[in-house]
Design brief:
Blueprint lengths: L14 H14 L2 H22 L10 H14 L4 E6 L4 E6 L5 H7 L3 H17 L3 E7 L8 E7 L1
Helix pairs in contact: 1-2, 2-5
InterPro entries: NO_sig/Golgi_transp_ligand-bd
Length: 154
C-alpha cells in the first residue's frame, strides 16, 4: 500500500481542483467563510452517522454501541482509526492513521482543512452522544504519525 494518492476516473474529473477552488474561496471570505466551512464539516459528520444508522437513537444506545458505530463509520471513511475508551473518566482517544484530506491540508499550508476535519469528527460524536467535546492532541500536518483526538463524552 502506498501513502501517495492514486485516483482513476473515466472520463477525467478533477474533483481535487474543484475542492481547492471551493475551499480557497471560503478562506478568502475571511472568518465568516472559515466558520461556514467548519459548520458544514460538522453538518456532514452528523449526516454520515444519521445516514449509516437511520433507525438508531442516541437515547437507546449503549456507549459500546455508539463506539462501535464510530469505529465502523471511521473505517468506512478510510481513516484507518484506532479507538481507546476510558469508561471511568468517560474519555475516548481516537487516532487517525490515514487522513482523507491530506493532500489538500498540506497544499493549503495551514490548519483550516484540519480544523474542518475536526468539526466533521465532532459532528459524528455529537450525533451519538448527548455531550461530546473533541480536542486535537496531535496532527499529521505538524509531522506527527497520526492525528489524535481526545473526546470527553456523556
Amino acid at each position: 500500500m502506498s501513502d501517495e494518492l492514486v485516483q482513476l476516473q473515466f472520463p477525467f474529473r478533477d474533483y481535487q481542483t474543484l475542492a481547492k477552488i471551493a475551499i480557497e474561496s471560503l478562506i478568502h471570505l475571511g472568518e465568516a467563510g472559515k466558520q461556514a466551512l467548519y459548520e458544514t464539516g460538522r453538518k456532514f459528520g452528523s449526516h454520515i452517522i444519521k445516514t449509516n444508522y437511520p433507525n438508531e437513537s442516541e437515547v437507546n444506545l449503549t456507549n459500546e454501541e455508539k463506539i462501535r458505530f464510530l469505529k465502523e463509520t471511521s473505517a468506512m471513511l478510510g481513516l484507518d482509526p484506532d479507538f481507546s475508551y476510558d469508561e471511568t473518566h468517560q474519555v475516548m482517544m481516537l487516532k487517525i492513521f490515514h487522513c482523507p484530506f491530506k493532500e489538500l491540508a498540506f497544499s493549503n499550508e495551514n490548519q483550516t482543512i484540519c480544523e474542518m476535519h475536526r468539526y466533521f469528527i465532532s459532528g459524528m460524536f455529537e450525533q451519538l452522544f448527548t455531550s461530546a467535546t473533541l480536542k486535537e492532541e496531535t496532527n499529521m500536518l505538524n509531522g506527527c504519525q497520526t492525528c489524535m483526538y481526545k473526546a470527553s463524552i456523556q
